[in-house]
Write a sequence for this structure.
């Protein structure tokens, strides 16, 4: 569903910036920062969320041995039938989607499973890296990417953030798990509700929130035209040069997600439904192949998904 253009006096990117600083910032505090009354602040917030410009923060754990997530990319006979069947058996399932491309169905699970169909790609997820989008037009981002592509020899690589933690996060206990279950798909869930449903003390909850960066990622996503204006696409790339690809794809004005499945770099992009939107990712990967910074790659388009 496409929405009418943003008509409010505030730039939604500014709201996103405050949310990045404090993912649980009260709406009344957002109003104060813009020096407007709470009702106006609420209208702006509701519009940004409802239009899919800003996605509510979620939380994902890092790749410690006791937090591993298993990603399955499949080719199944009837993707939609599996989509409906899985809703009745969600044990350990975090996410699944119907796709078109190298895979026609994806499953993310906290347990190893025996899925139907052919397993095209399987792996344990590394830590995530999520870009902080630039506040610019898509055309400006293309120009920036092309400029960087023309001067790749000057790029100074850095260590990849897409690491695996080959140890157990020892401090994790049952209360921490219950708090996580309340926050992982909505990091802004009210403290009062967490207290009521987990039997955790408020001090325990606040300690969990304060220390969360040691064991997980708070993910906040931004889509300047609204999520419906973009085609979600997952790229699977052979490369040992994560930092180059992260630098290039982070130029985009919509959020981009990076992770590894063993030897494959996975990039979840959100690009416009235009020729330029389809072209820029493949052009980038083509140039990187010629420079021997990337090898073979393929992609799948996400059609629709389910998040329990």
């Amino acid at each position: 569903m496409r929405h009418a253009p943003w008509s409010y006096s505030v730039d939604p990117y500014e709201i996103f910036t405050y949310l990045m600083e404090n993912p649980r910032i009260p709406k009344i505090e957002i109003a104060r920062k813009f020096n407007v009354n709470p009702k106006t602040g609420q209208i702006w917030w509701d519009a940004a969320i409802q239009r899919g410009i800003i996605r509510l923060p979620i939380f994902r754990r890092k790749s410690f041995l006791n937090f591993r997530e298993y990603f399955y990319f499949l080719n199944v006979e009837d993707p939609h039938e599996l989509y409906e069947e899985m809703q009745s058996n969600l044990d350990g399932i975090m996410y699944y989607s119907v796709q078109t491309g190298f895979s026609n169905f994806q499953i993310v699970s906290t347990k190893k499973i025996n899925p139907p169909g052919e397993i095209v790609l399987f792996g344990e997820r590394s830590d995530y890296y999520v870009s902080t989008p630039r506040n610019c037009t898509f055309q400006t981002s293309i120009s920036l990417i092309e400029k960087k592509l023309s001067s790749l020899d000057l790029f100074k690589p850095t260590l990849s953030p897409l690491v695996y933690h080959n140890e157990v996060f020892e401090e994790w206990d049952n209360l921490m798990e219950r708090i996580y279950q309340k926050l992982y798909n909505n990091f802004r869930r009210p403290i009062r509700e967490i207290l009521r449903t987990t039997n955790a003390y408020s001090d325990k909850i606040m300690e969990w929130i304060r220390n969360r960066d040691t064991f997980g990622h708070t993910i906040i996503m931004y889509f300047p035209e609204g999520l419906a204006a973009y085609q979600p696409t997952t790229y699977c790339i052979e490369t040992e040069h994560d930092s180059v690809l992260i630098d290039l794809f982070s130029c985009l004005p919509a959020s981009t997600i990076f992770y590894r499945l063993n030897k494959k770099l996975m990039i979840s992009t959100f690009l416009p439904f235009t020729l330029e939107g389809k072209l820029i990712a493949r052009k980038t990967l083509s140039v990187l192949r010629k420079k021997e910074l990337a090898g073979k790659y393929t992609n799948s388009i996400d059609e629709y998904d389910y998040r329990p």
In short: Residues 173-214 form one domain. The first helix runs from residue 12 to 21.
